[in-house]
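Exercise 7. Given the encoded structure of a 296-residue chain, write a plausible sequence.
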């Protein structure tokens, strides 16, 4: 098994010529995407990795997870990950864009409000139950058959199978208690998180998000805290620092370059911001990550 290295971070898009959706066996991925998986990288699309049988290690946003039998990893756009697997691994990798899946309310709920892909998720790993395995395997095999052919309304069929697969996953995922209510408050939090993902580099003040969402800053902080456990200001700070950590851990960019890419004109200001939010200095974090990578 190869160890994780510190080569520059790759940005990867979905390159399917027909529909912005792919499904491949783990064996196909091992043979054809080994160069991609040899370094840490991120995608601009969603990825579901279902390991039916096999072993290895999966690094996701600075965390290390053991690859075990019957585990599913849900990777969101922008997350940095690297999958290191043994030669004999059985399973599937499903990739799709948000545009392919569709932006209907029910589809959005499946991606985010269930906990599969949203920022409130406690873990990106789901353990597949014995009772659900048969249904999931049947859907995956039908997706492969449809993907490898070019029948009429192929994209629509694939989209339908994908939705069924996500529903099966959701039934096995323990939704955090604070995510249970589905109301206007949840809609507000959803819109806030969408805006945050788009504007965290240029907008770091709660009042700016509140103005766009037509609520007061205090109300936005209160509702976001009620549903997630943390106020909106916390999520804004954490999102900025997460991107800084990604670049620090997986690229050769200097602190000055990272600070500038995140909208900080003053490196000293960025350094203070990072330490206050992360609880450690940028240089100490960089050294610690380098040591961890060398030991991996």
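Solution.
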């Amino acid at each position: 098994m190869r160890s994780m290295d510190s080569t520059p971070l790759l940005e990867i898009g979905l390159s399917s010529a027909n529909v912005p959706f792919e499904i491949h066996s783990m064996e196909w991925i091992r043979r054809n995407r080994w160069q991609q998986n040899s370094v840490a990288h991120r995608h601009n699309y969603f990825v579901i990795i279902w390991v039916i049988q096999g072993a290895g290690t999966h690094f996701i946003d600075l965390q290390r997870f053991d690859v075990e039998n019957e585990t599913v990893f849900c990777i969101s756009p922008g997350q940095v990950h690297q999958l290191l697997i043994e030669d004999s691994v059985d399973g599937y990798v499903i990739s799709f864009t948000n545009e392919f899946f569709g932006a209907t309310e029910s589809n959005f709920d499946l991606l985010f409000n269930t906990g599969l892909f949203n920022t409130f998720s406690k873990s990106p790993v789901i353990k597949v139950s014995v009772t659900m395995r048969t249904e999931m395997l049947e859907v995956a095999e039908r997706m492969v058959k449809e993907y490898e052919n070019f029948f009429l309304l192929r994209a629509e069929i694939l989209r339908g199978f994908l939705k069924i697969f996500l529903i099966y996953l959701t039934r096995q995922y323990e939704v955090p208690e604070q995510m249970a209510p589905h109301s206007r408050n949840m809609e507000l939090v959803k819109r806030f998180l969408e805006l945050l993902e788009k504007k965290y580099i240029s907008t770091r003040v709660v009042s700016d998000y509140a103005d766009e969402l037509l609520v007061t800053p205090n109300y936005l902080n209160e509702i976001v805290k009620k549903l997630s456990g943390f106020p909106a200001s916390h999520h804004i700070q954490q999102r900025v620092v997460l991107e800084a950590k990604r670049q620090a851990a997986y690229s050769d960019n200097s602190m000055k370059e990272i600070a500038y890419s995140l909208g900080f004109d003053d490196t000293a200001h960025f350094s203070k911001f990072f330490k206050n939010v992360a609880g450690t200095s940028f240089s100490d974090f960089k050294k610690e990550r380098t040591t961890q990578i060398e030991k991996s």
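Remark. Residues 209 and 242 are 19 Å apart (CA to CA). Students should compare their own answers with the one above.
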